[in-house]
Write a sequence for this structure.
């Protein structure tokens, strides 16, 4: 399957700041790809590069087979874009906005528009500037889904929304998922985990990992080793162990390269006198926090350990 | 096309208040503008509402200023509706074709800026007695100038700013720069030379670079590049204003005579007891104005020679020399049979002081326009407005309260530009118009040169009607009682057409700069 989004050594500088650094990414058709990362990691910049809002400093990116630098006009017939900080034609009512956009898209599905209006309970006669943030986001979603785009790009779409609105939007999104590819950035890790098929992690403009959600969940484990006596942190900790810490007889760390067949055996060999070793699956939020926190004092070898080579989603 | 109309319709729905304001200002401008020349021609001898109160005139001037201000608002609002600076605009990720977006904005300006203005100009022309269809080239040329000087620069600035406030600040900055350039250029002699090319270079630069900036922004949103381009435009205009290649332009406009060519007139320096060179302090006590008497001959019958500009080169016996830039001489006219004239120019006081004590070799170069008499229109002065082809519409100026049956002179107005270069003669009489019994009359002829040799179909302006200033009026000086201009008096308009432009030289050997007088009165120091 051809990648819907494909970047090669994509780079964006703002003065001396490198916002996106040699980024290689491939998002396959049909994926629901969540790009996560701390504030300032480069998620929004990456999305704006993909949408040709910014021009790359180096490298290249393709969206739906089109070079991003040429992404304009009719190419957006197949792309739906919603961003938390995107301006809207506030002077229009929700209804007139939908009517205005309708004429731009040959594939606009009026029935779907009506369905989305009902589903999101959009007040069509109210001006956008008088709508709440949640309602505005719903209007933006409706105006970006009604033409059945091949790719939906969402930049922090759920930030600042109440859980009810978030659920409604995700529901609307999931309904469209079978016929589209979704690429989104978000801090709402719990929500992402519930519907994303792939996840990527950006740190200081670099893509640290990019893989399928189950693979990521399988790869990260919170490991607890109960030792026979109180011990300090062992020496020569492997780079795949994140945030190692000891308390009394207990050693805890996050294993970023867990394998069912190999890892328990290795740990038993390393701690032969251990009274117990447990491996707990981690939610995405915990993985995110572990990777983010360890990033502040990470060595290059640790970075390699976290990253998965050939990160095609 | 569908997308263009769709965006246009959206902008029209959104900006109807701004459109309404702009159209209202234009309508008010038409209403007050037409009153101005009606007032001038219909009111009698200085009484009437328009002559008593400056209010309507001020209002008309204010509205003439407000028309472009309303355009500023309109352009800013409509361009910023889909602004080109920033990365959060709603339209960036919608299927807008940049050509369609640009075309929609142009269509908007065409519909709500150009069309109302064009109609306003036509109405004003018609009100002033000019048939608009006869002035279509001028109307379109004026629109082109307005596009270059007002619309495109505003449009271009709107494409590189985010909102109305930013645009206003930028515009103020640009105005300060332009004022600075103007202030500096007033100190640069070569910047003041007026060639027949006028400001064509600046107009072409404005049109070309502003259009390039706009297209660049719409096609690629290269904000920094577009801003650099517009800053460069300002720098280029400054260079054009401050470093005009006056010699090259003048040589092109007034080619030096080819060998063997017949000059339009011959000139020589031949002072006599009555006609001596003179010098006076001028230019804010920084310059010496020099007046040199010259002999003129050889002006062909049926033609006149217009003396447009002068350049002077001085060489001292010690080899030191100085050459002026081209200086305007305010259209002195040489007639067939004319023998004497003056060539006036100014030199810096420092140069005057350096060269005043020695005999000089002085070369005067005159820029001349030879004109040929053309169409003659003789009119028996009617009581109301009358149309003079290729000149304009004239009106007998109302006489004073005690002489309501006669005129003080005539006032004229032209359409879109000054009239063609024309010699106007008016026949007055010493007898009262309705004297009974009939008084013995003596005919008094007065005349004036009016208009311009420039060929442009229009001058830049919001108001399409131009008053022809300084038309011949009552002739007070030579007669105890002012002569009378009665209905039926003869008024003649002789049009002169440009035949060629050239230069003529006068070489003066052993010229001594005359003693300097202050304010035309020579100061004689006590011995």
């Amino acid at each position: 399957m051809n990648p819907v989004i494909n970047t090669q050594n994509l780079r964006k500088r703002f003065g001396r700041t490198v916002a996106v650094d040699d980024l290689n990414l491939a998002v396959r058709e049909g994926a629901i790809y969540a790009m996560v990362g701390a504030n300032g990691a480069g998620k929004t910049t990456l999305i704006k590069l993909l949408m040709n809002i910014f021009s790359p400093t180096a490298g290249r990116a393709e969206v739906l087979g089109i070079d991003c630098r040429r992404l304009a006009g009719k190419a957006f017939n197949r792309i739906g874009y919603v961003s938390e900080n995107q301006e809207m034609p506030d002077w229009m009512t929700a209804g007139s906005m939908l009517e205005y956009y309708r004429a731009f898209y040959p594939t606009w599905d009026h029935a779907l528009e009506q369905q989305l209006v009902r589903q999101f309970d959009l007040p069509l006669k109210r001006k956008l500037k008088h709508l709440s943030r949640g309602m505005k986001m719903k209007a933006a979603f409706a105006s970006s889904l009604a033409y059945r785009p091949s790719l939906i790009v969402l930049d922090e779409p759920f930030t600042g929304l109440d859980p009810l609105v978030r659920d409604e939007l995700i529901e609307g999104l999931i309904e469209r998922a079978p016929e589209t590819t979704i690429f989104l950035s978000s801090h709402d890790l719990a929500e992402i985990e519930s519907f994303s098929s792939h996840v990527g992690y950006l740190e200081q403009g670099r893509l640290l990992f990019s893989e399928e959600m189950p693979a990521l969940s399988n790869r990260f484990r919170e490991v607890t080793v109960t030792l026979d006596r109180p011990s300090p942190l062992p020496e020569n900790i492997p780079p795949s162990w994140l945030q190692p810490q000891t308390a009394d007889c207990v050693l805890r760390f996050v294993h970023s390269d867990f394998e069912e067949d190999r890892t328990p055996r290795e740990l038993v060999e390393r701690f032969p006198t251990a009274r117990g070793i447990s491996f707990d699956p981690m939610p995405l939020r915990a993985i995110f926090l572990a990777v983010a926190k360890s990033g502040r004092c990470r060595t290059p070898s640790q970075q390699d350990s976290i990253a998965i080579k050939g990160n095609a989603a | 096309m569908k997308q263009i109309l769709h965006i246009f319709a959206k902008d029209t729905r959104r900006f109807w208040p701004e459109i309404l304001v702009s159209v209202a200002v234009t309508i008010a401008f038409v209403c007050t503008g037409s009153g101005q020349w009606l007032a001038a021609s219909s009111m009698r001898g200085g009484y009437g509402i328009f002559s008593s109160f400056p209010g309507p005139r001020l209002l008309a001037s204010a509205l003439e200023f407000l028309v472009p201000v309303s355009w500023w608002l309109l352009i800013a609002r409509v361009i910023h509706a889909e602004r080109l600076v920033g990365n959060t605009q709603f339209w960036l990720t919608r299927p807008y074709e940049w050509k369609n977006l640009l075309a929609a904005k142009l269509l908007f300006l065409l519909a709500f800026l150009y069309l109302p203005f064009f109609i306003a100009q036509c109405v004003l022309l018609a009100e002033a007695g000019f048939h608009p269809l006869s002035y279509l080239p001028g109307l379109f040329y004026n629109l082109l100038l307005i596009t270059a000087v007002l619309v495109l620069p505003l449009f271009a600035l709107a494409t590189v700013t985010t909102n109305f406030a930013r645009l206003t600040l930028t515009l103020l900055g640009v105005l300060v720069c332009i004022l600075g350039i103007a202030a500096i250029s007033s100190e640069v002699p070569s910047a003041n030379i007026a060639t027949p090319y006028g400001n064509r270079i600046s107009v072409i630069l404005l049109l070309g670079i502003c259009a390039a900036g706009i297209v660049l922004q719409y096609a690629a949103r290269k904000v920094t590049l577009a801003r650099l381009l517009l800053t460069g435009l300002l720098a280029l205009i400054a260079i054009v204003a401050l470093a005009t290649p006056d010699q090259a332009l003048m040589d092109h406009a007034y080619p030096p005579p080819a060998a063997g060519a017949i000059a339009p007139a011959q000139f020589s320096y031949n002072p006599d007891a009555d006609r001596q060179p003179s010098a006076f302090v001028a230019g804010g006590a920084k310059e010496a104005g020099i007046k040199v008497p010259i002999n003129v001959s050889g002006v062909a019958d049926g033609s006149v020679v217009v003396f447009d500009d002068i350049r002077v080169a001085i060489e001292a016996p010690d080899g030191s020399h100085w050459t002026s830039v081209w200086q305007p001489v305010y259209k002195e006219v040489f007639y067939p049979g004319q023998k004497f004239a003056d060539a006036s120019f100014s030199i810096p006081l420092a140069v005057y002081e350096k060269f005043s004590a020695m005999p000089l070799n002085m070369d005067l170069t005159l820029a001349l326009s030879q004109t040929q008499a053309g169409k003659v229109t003789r009119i028996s002065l009617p009581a109301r407005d009358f149309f003079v082809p290729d000149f304009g519409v004239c009106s007998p100026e109302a006489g004073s309260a005690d002489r309501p049956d006669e005129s003080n002179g005539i006032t004229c107005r032209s359409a879109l530009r000054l009239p063609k270069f024309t010699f106007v003669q008016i026949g007055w009489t010493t007898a009262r118009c309705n004297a009974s019994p009939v008084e013995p009359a003596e005919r008094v002829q007065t005349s004036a040169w009016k208009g311009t040799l420039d060929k442009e179909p229009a001058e830049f302006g919001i108001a399409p009607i131009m008053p022809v200033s300084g038309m011949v009026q009552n002739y007070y000086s030579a007669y105890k009682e002012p002569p009378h201009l009665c209905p039926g008096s003869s008024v003649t308009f002789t049009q002169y057409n440009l035949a060629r432009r050239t230069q003529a030289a006068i070489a003066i050997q052993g010229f001594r700069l005359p003693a300097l007088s202050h304010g035309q009165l020579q100061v004689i120091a006590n011995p």
